């Protein structure tokens, strides 16, 4: 093979290999959860769903806890 063909082949293989790479942006670490005060159960048949952080694409947002009927 000629040198130009080998160079072209090598460059093509590198391009194909790197085209499958996914670069994900770096997220900051999730902050520690704030202290939640659990209010009194509204009625029998409810359970507490603890609050948690959600990533909104730019920053961590706190979703507060709530009571849910089951």
Automatic annotation (TrEMBL):
PROSITE patterns xrefs: PROKAR_LIPOPROTEIN
Name the UniProt record assigns to this protein: YXWGXW repeat-containing protein
Species of provenance: Pseudomonas jessenii
Source taxonomy: Bacteria, Pseudomonadati, Pseudomonadota, Gammaproteobacteria, Pseudomonadales
